[in-house]
């Protein structure tokens, strides 16, 4: 059989498979209909809560990495020949600055990786970005108990370094080949190197400040420092926006008149609709995009880089969010995904009794072999399920509180905390587009396996 015939047979097989799925699609069942609704509820919630406030700033930052940061700087601190102690130390604590979710960190990860960062430090940054969120760890300790809070903080830092090092060792041959290649210098590299470092730092400081404070989560109690920051977050975000405008004016020679015109709609909406700050934020983002059309060559390159990340990542993210909502439901959904919540709760309990009551009746007793492997199974299932679910920043804490109240064990809870915020089905699709399937499956596998082992150890200690 020649190559053309094989290709045609593959097409025929694919068409037959799609036909069979469509033919037997259970569209008349309430469970299926509810799952479809949950998928669109989740993607609507994601579009409202995360695209404007999280992804848009992240895309601008990722684009700026490719334009305003020299490749020499990336190679010096994160490249294959960089000091391992320095690169992994910086990457492993980056999440304490960036309070982002598993999807928002992707443009930033893509930015540093495509500029020449080594696989290990880039992976450490990819994991730590959403995992080591100071506010989330504090909230975990207060809501779920100090043991889980401490274990999550320590585990996240250790995971980022260990997984990064393992990825480096597993793909050591490719990393050595990458390090041996002569460094490519892009057009405009000399100009980037000539720009004073303090200007670049101040410019990125303003953008990161906008990203962090615009997404500052509301604490459970309206008291303390965290709530004070939350209460003033839009004032602080406005300050960083003004700082970025000053940087554009002074460092990139954008005319002050254009900056003022771009800022007017955002300022008007901020005062006209103080209860809906997203409108002002959207207007400010549109104004910033408009400024890239009237600036110099650097701003044009910035726009092109930002748009490149957006068109590569956004379709995959929306498709992944739809799939996650269909299978597991939205955060506000009540047992509405195609996989019933009661089954998830039964599969992560301290004992197999809840599962047996669903499958064999309330009087069923667990056989010895099932009781023996139960800790391994529950922690693996929690890690695997958490890796597929999408958790926005801080949402994992109330979700886990509900699961713990429903009988989830402490070990599986930690396993889900270590795997869930750092991974999601949408993020896997994007990581695959950047790294390829081999590296993506290895990364996901390492996260799931390490979370499983850590959950088992933690469960044995606290129980």
Provide an overview of this structure.
This protein has 463 residues and is mainly alpha-helical. It has one domain (51-254, 295-462). It is built from 23 helices and no strands. Helix 16 (297-328) crosses helix 22 (425-435). The chain is globular and about 75 Å long. The N and C termini lie far apart (61 Å). The relative contact order is 0.12. The model is unreliable at 185-193 (pLDDT under 50).
Question: Radius of gyration, rounded?
Answer: 24 Å
Measured by DSSP, the beta-strand proportion falls in under 5%
Distance between the termini: 61 Å
Note poorly predicted spans.
Answer: 185-193
**DSSP helix count?**
23
Give the overall form. globular
Number of domains: 1
Question: Major beta sheet, specifics?
Answer: none
Oligomer: single chain
The helix-strand sequence is HHHHHHHHHHHHHHHHHHHHHHH
* Overall mean confidence score, pLDDT: 82
Helical content (DSSP H or I, runs of 4+): over 70%
How many E strands? Answer: 0
What structural class do the secondary elements suggest?
mainly alpha
């Amino acid at each position: 059989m020649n190559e053309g015939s094989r290709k045609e047979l593959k097409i025929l097989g694919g068409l037959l498979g799609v036909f069979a799925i469509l033919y037997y699609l259970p569209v008349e069942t309430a469970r299926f209909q509810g799952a479809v609704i949950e998928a669109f509820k989740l993607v609507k919630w994601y579009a409202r809560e995360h695209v404007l406030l999280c992804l848009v700033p992240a895309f601008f930052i990722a684009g700026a990495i490719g334009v305003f940061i020299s490749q020499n700087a990336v190679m010096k601190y994160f490249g294959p020949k960089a000091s391992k102690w320095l690169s992994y130390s910086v990457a492993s604590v980056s999440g304490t600055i960036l309070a982002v979710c598993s999807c928002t960190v992707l443009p930033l990860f893509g930015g540093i990786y495509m500029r020449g960062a080594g696989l290990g430090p880039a992976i450490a940054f990819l994991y730590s970005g959403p995992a080591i969120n100071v506010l989330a760890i504090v909230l975990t300790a207060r809501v779920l108990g100090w043991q889980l809070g401490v274990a999550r903080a320590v585990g996240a830092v250790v995971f980022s370094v260990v997984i990064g090092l393992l990825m480096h060792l597993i793909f050591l041959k490719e990393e050595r080949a990458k390090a041996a290649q002569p460094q490519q210098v892009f057009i405009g590299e000399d100009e980037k190197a000539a720009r004073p470092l303090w200007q670049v730092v101040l410019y990125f400081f303003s953008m990161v400040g906008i990203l962090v404070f615009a997404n500052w989560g509301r604490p459970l109690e309206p008291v303390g420092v965290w709530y004070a920051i939350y209460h003033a977050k839009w004032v602080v975000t406005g300050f960083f926006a003004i700082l970025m405008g000053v940087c554009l004016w002074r460092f990139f020679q954008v005319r002050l008149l254009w900056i003022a015109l771009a800022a007017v709609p955002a300022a008007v909406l901020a005062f006209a609709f103080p209860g809906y700050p997203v409108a002002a934020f959207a207007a400010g983002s549109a104004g910033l995009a408009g400024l890239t059309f009237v600036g110099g060559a650097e701003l044009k390159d910035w726009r092109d880089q930002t748009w490149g990340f957006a068109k590569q990542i956004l379709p995959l993210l929306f498709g992944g969010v739809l799939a996650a909502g269909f299978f597991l439901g939205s955060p506000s959904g009540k047992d509405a995904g195609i996989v019933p919540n009661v089954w998830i709760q039964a599969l992560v309990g301290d004992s197999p009794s809840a599962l047996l009551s669903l499958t064999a009746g309330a009087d069923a007793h667990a056989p010895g072999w099932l009781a023996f492997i139960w800790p391994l199974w529950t922690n693996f299932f929690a890690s695997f399920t958490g890796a597929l679910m999408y958790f926005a920043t801080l949402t994992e804490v109330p979700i886990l509180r509900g699961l713990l109240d429903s009988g989830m064990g402490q070990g599986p809870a930690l396993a889900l905390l270590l795997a869930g915020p750092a991974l999601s089905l949408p993020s896997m699709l994007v990581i695959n587009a950047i790294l390829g399937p081999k590296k993506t499956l290895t990364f996901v596998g390492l996260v799931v396996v390490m979370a499983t082992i850590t959950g088992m150890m933690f469960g044995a200690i606290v129980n």
